[in-house]
Every structure is written in C-alpha cells, then in structure tokens.
Write the structure tokens for this entry.
Amino acid sequence: MSLSPLLIFDFDGVIADGMPEYWFSSRLACSYLINSEYDSSSLPSMPPNAFVQLRPWVEHGWEMVLLAAELLRDDSYLLNYGADLFAASYPKHCKDALKAWGWTPSQLQSALEEARRSAIRRDKDHWFSLHNPYPWVLERFNQFPFEGVEWAVLTTKGQEFAEELLNFLGLHPTLVFGHESGSKTDVLKEIISSRLIQGFVEDRRETLEKVLSIQEIAFVPCYLASWGYLKPMQDQIALPEGIRLLSPETMSAPLATWH
C-alpha cells in the first residue's frame, strides 16, 4: 500500500461550477436526438430555472439531456407541473420521460459526449469559459503536497472531458476516474485495496450515504461540499455519522482540523 494518503474529489459542483456548460451541451445534445416535431433552438441560450433547480438531483450526465428535452415536450410532467413536483418523484419522472421519448440512458450519454467533443473542436476556449472553478479549491490543491497527501478526481463526467478541464486549470491529480471506470463506490473499493483514502469530497449526499452503507469503504471519511449542488433544505440537515459538512473555510484549513 502506498504511504501517501489520497484525497478524492468529485469534479462538478466541487472543483468547478459548470452550470452554463451543462445547459450548453445538453441543449446541443438535444438537437442530435429530437425529431422534426420539436425545435431545440427554441430552448433558451441560458440555463432555465427548472434545469438549475433540478441539478442537485442529477446523478449522471444523461439525465441533463433528458431534462432539457422535457422542456420541449408539450405534455411533459416537468413543463406542466414544474421542477418542485418533478423533483418529488425524480427517478419515476425520469423513467417516464425516457419511455415517452423512446430513448435509453446510454443513447443520451453518447449524445452528450458528442456534443462536448463538437464544442471543444469548434471553440475550445469558449467551452472552457463555461466553467467557473472555485478559487478556494484551486488554492487548496497547491497546498496538499506540503501536507504529505496526494489527490484524485472521481466523477461521473467522461474522463476525457475531466482531463481537458483539469489541464486547462493547471491541475494535475494523481488519478482521474470518469464514468467509464464504473460507479463511484466500485472505484472507491478498487482504490482502497492499494491506497489509504484520507477522505472523499462530494456534493451528493446520497452518494456519500451509499459509501457508508458498503462495508469495505464505510470507514472512508466523507465530506459534503457545502458550496456544491445541494438540495435546498435537505442535504445539510441531520447528516449521518460519518459525513461531515465541508465549508470553504474548513477546506482552507489544515487537514488535521477537518475531522
């Protein structure tokens, strides 16, 4: 086992706010998928409120494409009843929307990744500009070597896109895992077999709770990023033992004070 502890970070909502890019690429992906009955150009150029509101419920990138499409379909639950009611039964409404469109998650994920590749080919600088890194996080990464820890990225974003962004930001983690590597819990189990995990920083409470439920990784220190895409009035309340709320102030402090 390596002597260097490893801190593992999610990317979206933890290292950078990519809301403009999520919408830009999801909107573009819609144009690849929808038929002539709908016009994706009628979607607004800026992220609509419903899309922003539902981002904390999104686990996989393909869901964002589906949400964008649901803002076009006249009889969609999202369009007719709004984001709050959609969120109340989020998995069910996503399943119903997939059925209504006749799409599969892999089909949507492929469209999203092709949209991102196209955007990068066309104007890489513009694509980069759609991401806003959190300055306290970038600053902190530079300090980890002096505390004897390495850091890695574990994201449901495609690995190629995560690496593009990390290189653009001048960040060089020890390891990068995208959705191609499997579920986050499976990747953590793989890492723990050869590395000491100092902590896992994520902005999805459900993901952290799943980590705690799996015996092999239940002892990994879990941190919920307070600046991420958290569900309003839910994610920060009554956190279970094993999950600590991580604020920008705590993130900036020495690692020994995180506990």
